[in-house]
TrEMBL record:
GO terms for biological process: cell division; cell wall organization; peptidoglycan biosynthetic process; regulation of cell shape. It catalyses: D-alanyl-D-alanine + UDP-N-acetyl-alpha-D-muramoyl-L-alanyl-gamma-D-glutamyl-meso-2,6-diaminopimelate + ATP = UDP-N-acetyl-alpha-D-muramoyl-L-alanyl-gamma-D-glutamyl-meso-2,6-diaminopimeloyl-D-alanyl-D-alanine + ADP + phosphate + H(+). Involved in cell wall formation. Catalyzes the final step in the synthesis of UDP-N-acetylmuramoyl-pentapeptide, the precursor of murein. The keyword ATP-binding applies. One of its GO terms (molecular function) is UDP-N-acetylmuramoyl-tripeptide-D-alanyl-D-alanine ligase activity. InterPro entries: Mur-like_cat_sf (IPR036565), Mur_ligase_C (IPR004101), Mur_ligase_C_dom_sf (IPR036615), Mur_ligase_cen (IPR013221), Mur_ligase_N (IPR000713), MurCDEF_CellWall_CoF430Synth (IPR051046), MurE/MurF_N (IPR035911), UDP-N-AcMur_synth (IPR005863). It comes from Roseibium aggregatum. Residues 330-451 form the Mur ligase C-terminal domain. This is UDP-N-acetylmuramoyl-tripeptide--D-alanyl-D-alanine ligase. The lineage of its organism: Bacteria, Pseudomonadati, Pseudomonadota, Alphaproteobacteria, Hyphomicrobiales. Belongs to the MurCDEF family. MurF subfamily.
Length: 476
């Protein structure tokens, strides 16, 4: 019989709550969403910026929740015959549950942060470590003040490798999260001008990212990007935090894990590399130089966690870019096909450059074109227009044929584009829709990217709705 994720006794002890009603003996999972909750899972009524989980307790109980973790002050508003664990603050109780989950496991833990590439690196770690043992990892981008404790609370006691993504928008956010996770290995993918609105300088962003060192286990290892401009500062901060060892990765000859040769194919890359002195050749099943660079960090972590490097290298061939983060879809026209690269989840100067590089490498069948559909990058502060205009050089290097722009800051780029590259500019992404749908031709490769708030995702969905997906055998 499969062991439950939590017994009632362990759950109540960890959260410090008291029970009311017929709480089940076995708890199979942890949920904060009544719409996706599965029977037997505990529902945690978190109060967020827009919604309060207490308003959905009745729905969760109806869906078969083993219990609802609720605030004492809200009991009068809840069904009287419910199954409850009652606490002062459900989010704090979730944190305590996460701490208890970390304490009861012998898993080797890796935590990932960085301005760009956190989720892709986290998914690559999941993929590679699964070849060596039982892995538990964050779902989606659960990397904030509720996502990290939720991921910890969901970690089974018999986990062998834990993979956690840790994000931040402000200084001080990473420290409490990493002290819950207590990783043996910490990766900083890169530090770039992201969230400048809240920090003012890239150096301050580096200092905030370096908070990940505060939670490393005593014999922990930091893995840093040797090619990043903030490397010297990060290494100093790691040493100051008492980090036992720093491993480096990159294209620089002095890196501990270094690329020796790369061969790029449509949709993938073949890599020869040295990982902490171990020679390895592997294929990455997702396109882009940034995936090659981050694979070095992934394989370095695999070695430091004691997993099998050779099996991890083989696993990277199965890597695929997720929806909104580079997913490629082939769609059908009456007289051919075109490809859509979905980068609509988020954007900053570094990830824009990486996405434009991927577009530049994509094979195009003429008269098809390389088309960039670009929305505003958010949270860049007073340098926003300057950073948007700075994309012009990357577009020129990438050999982009046609550019669509939307958003007030992206107008700074639009002003620089030569007439032959301009498709259309609109204040909002929706203003690009009709022209984009009408202008598609066989052989096109269309990359759509912007910050989530710039609403570029609906353009991807509009193309998928207007044009049917290509037959899988043709797409392959």
């Amino acid at each position: 019989m499969t062991e439950p994720l939590w017994t009632r006794e362990a759950f109540v002890e960890a959260t410090g709550g008291e029970t009311s009603g017929e709480v089940a003996d076995a708890i199979t999972g942890i949920s904060i969403d009544s719409r996706t909750l599965q029977p037997g899972e505990a529902f945690v009524a978190i109060k967020g910026d827009r919604l309060d989980g207490h308003d959905f307790v009745a729905a969760a109980l109806e869906a078969g929740a083993s219990l609802a973790l609720v605030a004492r002050e809200r009991m009068a508003d809840l069904p009287r015959d419910g199954r409850y664990v009652i606490v002062d603050d459900p989010l704090e109780a979730l944190r305590q549950l996460g701490v208890a989950a970390r304490a009861r496991t012998e898993a080797r833990i890796v935590a990932v942060t960085g301005s760009v590439g956190k989720t892709g690196t986290k998914e690559a770690l999941r993929l590679t470590l699964e070849r060596s043992g039982k892995v538990h990892a964050s779902v989606a981008s659960f990397n904030n003040h509720w996502g990290v404790p939720l991921t910890l609370a969901r970690m089974p006691a018999d986990t062998e490798y834990g993979v956690f993504e840790i994000g931040m928008n402000h200084a001080g956010e990473i420290t409490p999260l990493v002290k819950m996770v207590r990783p043996h290995v910490a990766i900083i993918t890169t530090v770039q001008p992201v969230h400048l609105e809240f920090f003012g300088s890239v150096e301050k962003i580096a200092q905030a990212k370096a908070e990940i060192f505060a939670g490393l286990e005593p014999d922990g290892v930091a893995i840093l990007n040797r090619d990043n401009n903030q490397f010297d500062l990060l290494k100093f901060l790691a040493t100051a935090a008492g980090v036992a060892r720093v491993d480096t990765f990159g294209e620089s000859a002095g890196a501990d894990s270094v690329v020796e040769k790369v061969s790029r194919q449509p949709g993938s890359s073949s890599v020869q590399a040295s990982i902490l002195g171990n020679e390895i050749t592997y294929k990455i099943g997702a396109p882009g130089r940034h995936h090659v660079k981050n694979s070095l960090a992934v394989l370095t972590a695999v070695v430091e966690l004691g997993a099998d490097l050779a099996l991890a290298g083989l696993a990277l061939a199965d890597m695929r870019a997720p929806k909104g983060r580079g997913e490629v879809t082939r769609l059908k026209l009456s007289d051919g096909y075109f490809d859509v690269i979905d980068e609509s989840y988020n954007a900053n100067p570094a990830s824009m450059k990486a996405a434009l590089e991927v577009l530049s490498e994509a094979p195009v069948s003429r008269p098809g074109r390389r088309i960039a559909v670009l929305g505003d990058m958010r949270e860049l502060g007073e340098r926003s227009d300057q950073l948007h205009a700075g994309l012009f050089a990357h577009i020129a290097d990438a050999g982009i044929d046609t550019v669509y722009c939307s958003g007030p800051h992206m107008h700074a780029l639009w002003d620089l584009l030569p007439k032959h590259q301009r498709a259309i500019y609109a204040e909002e992404a929706a203003g690009l829709r009709n022209r984009l749908l009408e202008d598609v031709r066989p052989g096109d490769v269309i990359m759509i990217k912007g910050s989530l708030g710039s609403k570029m995702g609906p353009l991807v969905e509009a193309l998928k709705k207007e044009y049917p997906p290509a037959d899988e055998t043709v797409a392959a």
